[in-house]
Amino acid sequence: MIVRTLYARLAITLALTLGFAGLLYALFIFTAVQKNIQHADQSLNRNLAKTLVAERNLVRENELDEKALKQTFSDYMSVNPSIEIYLIDLSGKILSYSADPGHVHRTHVSLRPIHAFLKEDAMFPILGDDPRSPERQKVFSVTPIPSAASARGYLYVILRGEEYDREEQFARDKELLYLSGWVIGVALSISMLIGLLVFYPLTRRLRRLSARIDDFRKSDFKTPPDIAPKAGDELNQLEGNIQLMAQQIVRQFEQLSEQDTQRRDLFASLSHDLRTPLATLHGYLETLQLRSDKLTPEERETYVARAMQFSQRMKTLVDELFEMAKLDSIHDGLQTEPFALPELVQDVLQQFEPAAEKAGVKLHMSGDTELPFFDGNIGMMQRVFENLVSNALRHVEKGDRISVSLNATDQGIEVAVSDTGCGIEATELGKIFDPLYQVNNSHRGGEHSGLGLAIVRRILELHGCDIHVASTPGQGTSFTFSLKTSP
User: Which domains occur in the chain, in start order?
Assistant: First the structure.
């Protein structure tokens, strides 16, 4: 279980990384040392071939002494088995050698390294072909014979023969194993130390953050973790982002809870508002059915008129519920077009002129009449003004006044729909935009659904603005909102 923790994984990863780096370092050091040994060996034995020719009297009267050469082969096989001597011609063909015949696998060697070796400015180490191996190359010493002036071939001396290779390979493997063991051991020790000094504090912060998130989960996502966002490393940024995310989750849960409460209240109010006219409608229809033969034509007409009245009330409520649901389903923007707002307001006021004259109320439009075109949904904006004016008509008396004011601002158009009616109590101002909420101060009955202002607010939200209300009981109410016009 310990290996599953982030702390353990970091420590193991660091240990493996340092161990691998240590192994690569050991191989690099070994390769560099090997190259340096080759350089030193070839530099020290550069004139070995020339010395053999001179000291062993291999050339007599400008001719190669074959007998002396064979004796040299024999002597060096027993005295110095680390070198191997070969006689090659000018084409690189091997003519004779001191090595075991069964181990020589080449018939020719490349002359390019030999020519490079014989230059005065030769850069060591220079590797030449090893006659014992078709692929391997080794350091060597070479001299032309019988002389440089009249060369007929070369005395080619491999400085590290097969015997030397066997011994060196054994020592090298042993040394490499020893060095690698030490490097890996030191790397593992360092990684554990770093894990204790660095990784533990790092993972401790993660464990603390994980514990706070777990507490947040146990609180049913109601209490966000107490994390103070601050600038710093990536963990500080992560803590800050988690704190913001947790706060957003809490707000969303609160909004969902509030929406659920509103939904339950809406269904309760809707059930009441539908049940009352439905029961009344049912009563009138039942009376017409049971007492049809006893009612006078005037009474029958009255019952039918009342039934139609409550039927119309139910139809209005259902229509507005469908309209509200349709508005709530709009998320991808509106179909808009530019239009003149004063003309729309004038049309709406003319629509309500007969009802206003009957109630003894004056309708008036004021402000700027030459306004820039507003880019919006003309049908929805007409619905806004219709709902606001009809709402005002229910709360005014004879002699009162309803006015629509339009004024140009730097940001767009300031709209105010005001009346001089009965006003709204301060305790009810915060509720009037709730669906199905009805203020019980209407002078013309309660034949409305309570969805009008909720629809107004939703339409204005879709147009990117808010609506505000100010009211003084006994003096009137004013609804204001600002519409942004295109630059």
Answer: 46-158 (3.30.450), 234-327 (1.10.287.130), 333-484 (3.30.565.10)
17-67 pLDDT, tens digit per residue, is 777 777 777 677 777 777 887 787 888 888 888 887 777 676 665 566 667
Please state the rounded mean pLDDT for residues 266-295. 75
Closest by CA position to 132, among listed 95, 155, 107: 107
The full 3-state SS of 145-185, as one line of letters, equals ECCCCCCCEEEEEECCCHHHHHHHHHHHHHHHHHHHHHHHH
Both structure tokens of 14: 């660091």
Structure tokens at 275: 């049940």
DSSP string, 30-89: HHHHHHHHHHHHHHHTTTHHHHHHHHTT-EETTEE-HHHHHHHHHHHHHH-TT-EEEEEE
Model confidence at 480, pLDDT cuts 50, 70, 90, reads: very high
Q: How far apart are CA 345 and CA 369, in angstroms?
A: 10
Q: What's the full length of the chain, in residues?
A: 487
Find out whether 44 and 37 touch, Cβ atoms under 8 Å: no
pTM for the whole structure: 0.48
| 415: pLDDT strictly greater than 90 | yes
pLDDT over 90, % of the chain:
15
Instruction: Please enumerate in sequence order all residues whose Cβ is within 8 A of that of 376, keeping only pairs 6 or more positions apart, or say none.
Output: 334, 336, 337, 339, 463, 483
**Distance in angstroms between the alpha carbons of the first and the last residue of the chain:** 65
345 in Cβ contact with 364 (< 8 Å): no
What number of CA atoms fall less than 13 Å from residue 81's CA on the CB side? Answer: 8
Q: Which residues of 345-357 are buried (b: 16+ CB within 10 A; e: fewer)?
A: beebbeebeeebe
**Torsion, Cα of 136, 137, 139, 145 (10° steps):** 110
Of 249, 238, 269, whose CA–CA distance to 436 is shortest? 269
